[in-house]
Amino acid sequence: MPPFVATAVAHPNIALIKYWGNRDHELRIPENGSISFNLDGLYTKTSVRFDPSIEKDTLCINDQIMDGPDLRRVSQFLRYINGISGKHYFADVKSENNFPISAGIASSAAAFAALSLAATKAAGLDMSEIELSRIARRGSGSACRSIPEGFVEWKPGRDDEDSYAISIAPTNHWDLVDVIAVVKGKHKSIGSTAGHTFARTSPIQKARVADAPRRLALGRDAILQKDFSALAEIVEIDSNLMHAVMMTSNPTLLYWEPATISIMKAVAIWRQSGIPACYTLDAGPNVHVIVLSSYITEIKNRILELPGIENILVAPVGGAAKFID
Ligand code: DP6
Fold first, then answer.
1. Cβ-contact 146, 11 below 8 angstroms
2. Whole-angstrom Cα distance, residue 85 to residue 192?
3. Mutation to probe ligand 1, out of 192, 205, 288 (largest number of atoms < 8 A from CB)
4. Measured torsion, CA atoms of residues 212, 214, 215, 219, in degrees rounded to the nearest 10
5. Could you tell me how far CA 118 lies from the centroid of its own chain?
6. Which of 61, 116, 192, 272 is the most exposed place for a label (fewest CB within 10 A)?
């Protein structure tokens, strides 16, 4: 029997309203919904080859053979795909990112979105966008948001069937850009998967989750109406709330470096002076400065004047995950 091969690409995404904490950790059913946009120009490309003649999975990322937890996470995911297809083959998985791991951008979102597409296609399955989003969610929660195009909302749902992401506005809806300030210092000590399990230990997570529908409505409306100042206000509050939960959970998660705070304070001052910019931070010290595309150069120059900046990446709104030949 011949091997079954497919290749797909997917972008990472930046959440404007954040996912933090699960109702069900195994299925990655989140405690609250989230909204993001895909990051164009940054991508993961993944090929999957199910081969009836091999006896274990292999995983190669950026030309490096992986084992340990990375391989286990991918193997577990491939067994799930085997279960759907009814074909119980092992696979060779080859993946490349065009963005540096040191950029601290959650690579698992693009990785599991691309893997979902490539693996289901290689297994001979024909999936709808919603089905693919549900499948990607099991690999990494935020990966479900890298399946549809443009601006995306993950409807939290209550179980495997109804927890998936949909596009709420197309890629060309609004020319927002994520200017990612990579800061010097110690990067991500505790990853998101562990972090989600600690969220409930924070006394403020309950309040954060209870208030999520309000923040989602404000974020969604601001995107649909292209109202930057409304978006900026809720994006910063939502990021601060997630970091407040992180900082008050047990163990304490404090991802910020001194340079992180310098940028956050500067962005607030720039906005007061009329520049449409706001910040949001994931589980790491880098600052994602969201701006209108006409302000990219201005913002880049301003960020470079601040202390402790290692690198800057610029990503406009990106499209859906897709197959390639
Ligand atoms: C802070 O999706 O990376 O980036 O499901 O365990 O892979 P796993 O977690 P992940 O969590 C993302 C957390 C976040 C916020 C967000 O992207 O919404």
1. yes
2. 29
3. 192
4. 130
5. 18
6. 272
Atom of ligand 1 nearest to the CA of 141: 5
pLDDT along the chain (325 residues), means of 10: 85 98 97 98 97 96 94 97 96 93 77 98 97 98 98 98 98 98 78 94 98 98 98 98 98 95 98 97 95 98 96 97 93
pLDDT for res 190: 87
- Residue 36 has which token pair? 């993001």
| pLDDT (0 to 100) of residue 186 | 67
Q: Cα(142)–Cα(139) distance, rounded to whole angstroms?
A: 9
Closest C-alpha residue for ligand 1 atom 4: 282
Give residue 1's pLDDT. Answer: 54
Burial status of residue 65 (CB atoms within 10 A of its CB: 0-12, 13-18, 19 or more): exposed
Q: Is the pTM of this model over 0.85?
A: yes
| Closest Cα to atom 6 of ligand 1 | 193
Domains and CATH numbers, the chain: 4-172 (3.30.230.10), 176-316 (3.30.70.890)
Assign 259 to helix, strand or coil.
helix
Distance 121 CA to ligand 1 centre (A): 25
Strand ranges of the sheet holding 34-38, from the earlier edge strand across to the other edge: 13-17, 34-38, 151-155, 164-169
Residue 323 forms beta bridges with which residues? Answer: 8
pLDDT at 251: 96
Q: Considering only CA atoms, which of 306, 307, 309, 293 is closest in space to residue 37?
A: 293
What residues line ligand 1, using a CB cutoff of 6 Å? 15, 18-20, 28, 34, 106, 108-109, 140-142, 192-193, 196, 282-283
Q: What is the pLDDT of residue 19?
A: 98
Place of tokens 């749902």: 157
Question: Alpha-carbon distance 325 to 320, whole Å?
Answer: 16
